[in-house]
Protein 1
Amino acid sequence: MDNDSSVKSEISLFEAMYSARAMRWLKRDPVPPQLIHQILEAAIQAPNAGNRQNWLFMVVRDAEQRRRIGAIYQRVSHWVLQRYQHQGKPDCQSEAEYDRMMSGGLHLFDHMGDAPVLLIPCLRITPLELPENIPVEVRAAMREAYPWTAGASIYPAVQNIILACRALGLGTVLTTNHTIAENEIKEVLGLPAEVTTFALMPIGYPERSFGPVKRRPLSEVAMIDRYGSPFSVNSF
Ligand SMILES: Cc1cc2nc3c(=O)[nH]c(=O)nc-3n(C[C@H](O)[C@H](O)[C@H](O)COP(=O)(O)O)c2cc1C
């Protein structure tokens, strides 16, 4: 760590992973700038393609800027809500879990701008330039894969942010609804054309308690060697 004043975490990495649930109910109390600095330092330790570090982290604390971004999030989230309502509850969630997620989501619609800090991880995405000596079909495959590889260079940093927040006792949640209104968000932030936002993360002290998170069991989602062969320790 580059700074001796970093706050030491009281919890282990695994405890953070198991309890960093989506925190959508946040207090308006200010967050010390030192903690935001520490979170950003954690973010930039993340892996990224070619170690080019084409990322940019917009920290929004100005009240008027937060209000404008919050208003955009609120407006577009109602469209996303319609999609969620259309899809209905996924089988892996109980009614109570689904209701809790939806009520948290709805709460955040109206309170995104109230969080003391909004963190917006971005990437500078320049057009993919490929040399002529790469076979044409490989170049085509590279272009097709580009959107995935682009996002893959920022979400590891986003997860570091989530875990750093948890370690420091701060709540956050990865949200992406705002991307429907990407151009409006870019205008508010004055972002240049080549910068794309990938997440909008409110950060603040939590009003509700951390985890444990609830997930489908490993036996349903991990396989070994071939599709259809469930992973287990005994299958090694
Ligand atoms: C790609 C992605 C996009 C998400 N977008 C939103 C969002 O726009 N709004 C929101 O409230 N939560 C959003 N979430 C949070 C998820 O709803 C949350 O991670 C999930 O319900 C699990 O919550 P839990 O960790 O509390 O169990 C997003 C999560 C991911 C990974």
Protein 2
Amino acid sequence: MSAEASSPPESLEAKSPFELRVNQSAGAEESFVKRSIDTGDVGFLHSFTTGSAVDGPGIRVVAWTAGCNWRCRYCHNPDTWTVTNGVAVPLERAVEELRKYRRGLNVMSGGLTISGGEPLLQDRFTVRLCAAAKAMGVHTAIETNGYLGDRLSDADLDQIDLVLLGLKSWGDRHRDLTGKDIGPTLDFARRLAARKRPVWVRFVLVPGLTDDQVIVGPIAEFAARLGNVQRVEVLPFHQMGRYKWEKLGLDYTLEGTKAPSNELHEATCQAFRAAGLEAY
Ligand code: SF4
């Protein structure tokens, strides 16, 4: 691998996912990147973080993958949009890293979460890392926008104990927010429901962008009908990723947008609860 990409650093751990990391595999040959993605022998990771209490149940190790097929206007990690911004990490190295934490994760009722970026852009690596985690008795979760869910076979889905599924907007406004249609995400959600796979819905609450009842209402109804949604997490928008947009020379459209008030957050949670869902 050394001839094709630089070796991964000694520590994969970032101080936080908000650390800006770019061009970590900029010199990698295209054929190496393609082969890695096709086989999952190597993953491209923005970073690993440990001790997360907000990315699934218990305390989690989180592998942040690089590469995303969406362009959400509120994305707080646009440095994860490009695969080669991630460092090339052989699967065995990632498994070895996880092994260090496995006892602690079990004691703290936690596990591994693979987030991003969009982990299903690197679906083979994601599934193989989840399978390795399960083989060592570690709970597995992925955080995904669901658009590429049909890349996963039913056997692949069995390696994932929990899906943290982003439902970000509704109807035409979904494309305006993310650049993509919502259809494939909803299809994936229905398939997870049919297979009774546990799901936590993640919804980012942005005043003036996603707080409208014409968005929250249909998402709540859809999620409630699925029958496998264990909770909805209403995540308040924040400006912590703004500096990344500026540093990367990207056009950020939410400069003037404030974080939602506690009252708006609570009212949105109530709208989900009214549909029969648990919401926080
Ligand atoms: S799906 Fe996630 S990583 Fe991709 S652009 Fe949207 S918020 Fe960012």
